[in-house]
Amino acid sequence: MFIAPFFTLCALAFPAFSVPVATTTTSSVSPATFLNLGSTSYTLQLPIGTGGVAKELAGTSLASYSSDYFYVNKTGVTLYTPNTGVTTSGSLHPRTELKHNTNWKSSSSTFKNMTVSLQVDAVAPGKSVVISQILSFSNGPQFMVHAYEIGKIVIRAPSGTKTLDANYKIGSALVLNFSASSNVLSVTYKNLVSGATSSQTFAMTAYSDNYYKAGSYCQIVVGDAGYCQVTVSSLSVTTV
């Protein structure tokens, strides 16, 4: 597999269409250890599998796992999603994505938070990659943050779509924070390269089985050109 090199968090990255240069990692730390994922907190969903079933890893299997799809690189943990990826049940698109395993209630007065720092390294031509989500186990996607190859980041919500960054450059480091309490979701965004910021607030449906996800959920199907790749430098979820 060919992966583009990464620069410092505040550097501009290669264009999405450039030919990547082979990169390897010499880190002795596993991705799960690097991100401090804990022993039971997350499930990794992968774009590989057998019999049309995408592979998932959790617990001790995730703790030591590293592959071409999920590995430590210079600025964090790289999540690579090819256009040949196997999809999870109910989806047409492949993903290399971390799912937080604890469900929570929208109506709870205790804040349920996710903060993720990452950079979008590549997006398939004309497509987008979902870099973070809130889903309801029984009702599906509720909030999805898309980074588009054309250089735009938006959040899609049941009430409509809001732009977080109209001039995102592929490779720029960013920080996203979700904070949910009493059926209200607050989302803050900061581009660490350009300095662009955005804050959005949304009403939430009172579901009792929400959960957070972050990674590289590539909005491509088999046969599309290109791939998606995201490097996560930190990920934190608090639900209690």
Question: What does this molecule look like?
Answer:
It comes from Rhizoclosmatium globosum. Pfam families: Alginate_lyase2. This is Concanavalin A-like lectin/glucanase. GO terms for molecular function: carbohydrate binding. Keywords: Lectin, Signal. A hairpin with a 3-residue loop joins strand 8 and strand 9. This protein is mainly beta. The chain has a domain of 156 residues: Sandwich (Jelly Rolls). It has 2 helices and 15 strands. It has an 8-stranded antiparallel β-sheet with strand order 2-1-5-14-7-8-9-10. The N terminus is likely disordered. The longest helix has 5 residues. It is globular and about 40 Å long.
Q: How are the strands of the biggest sheet laid out side by side?
A: 2-1-5-14-7-8-9-10
The CATH topology of the domain at 31-102 and 116-170 and 206-234 is: Jelly Rolls
**Approximate shape:** globular
The number of helices is 2
How many beta-strand segments? 15
Q: Summarize the biggest pleated sheet.
A: 8 strands, antiparallel
Low-confidence stretches: 1-24
The CATH architecture of the domain at 31-102 and 116-170 and 206-234 is: Sandwich
Radius of gyration: 17 Å
Distance between the termini: 40 Å
CATH class of the domain at 31-102 and 116-170 and 206-234: Mainly Beta
Which structural class best describes the helix and strand composition? mainly beta
- Strand coverage percent: over 45%
GO molecular function: carbohydrate binding
Protein name: Concanavalin A-like lectin/glucanase
Signal peptide: 1-18
InterPro entries: Alginate_lyase_2 (IPR014895), ConA-like_dom_sf (IPR013320)
